[in-house]
Design brief:
By secondary structure, the protein is an alpha+beta fold. The protein has a domain at 2-77: RRM (RNA recognition motif) domain (Alpha-Beta Plaits), CATH 3.30.70.330. Helices cover 17% and strands 27% of the residues. The strands form two sheets. Strands 2-3-1-6 form a four-stranded antiparallel beta sheet. A hairpin with a 2-residue loop joins strand 4 and strand 5 (71-72). The longest helix is centred in the middle third of the chain and has 11 residues, at 53-63. The N and C termini lie far apart (79 Å).
Length: 115
């Protein structure tokens, strides 16, 4: 089985349209269009899983660069998701913040008694 990345698809593309596009090139296991978590709208790319690796290679050769809805498709073998590093999106990065953390690496001066 081989998973293909299908990029630059029109946001209106349906799973049925992608299935119809790839089926002439071989058996399809699954089609999944990636959508935005908040809006539910297509993010402009999808994954197509084909049962035979040879057929998947032929589909890449035949369909990469082909137009769908006025957009040239970008099709290649899907790569595993890698850890991009850095802080999670939307999270706060470290740093900033006033108060006692500003003494990092320095000994604090003793305070005078208040009375």
């Amino acid at each position: 089985m081989k998973k293909l990345f299908v990029g630059n698809i029109p946001h209106s593309t349906t799973e049925a349209e992608l299935r119809a596009l790839f089926e002439p090139h071989g058996a399809i296991e699954q089609v999944s269009i990636v959508t935005d978590r908040d809006t539910g709208r297509s993010r402009g790319f999808a994954f197509v899983e084909m049962t035979d690796s040879g057929e998947a290679e032929k589909a890449i050769a035949a369909l990469n660069g082909k137009e769908l809805g006025g957009r040239a498709l970008n099709i290649n073998e899907a790569r595993p998701k890698t850890d991009r590093g850095g802080p999670p999106r939307g999270g706060r990065s470290s740093g900033g913040g006033g108060g006692r953390d500003d003494y990092r690496g320095h000994a604090r001066q003793p305070r005078e008694p208040r009375w």
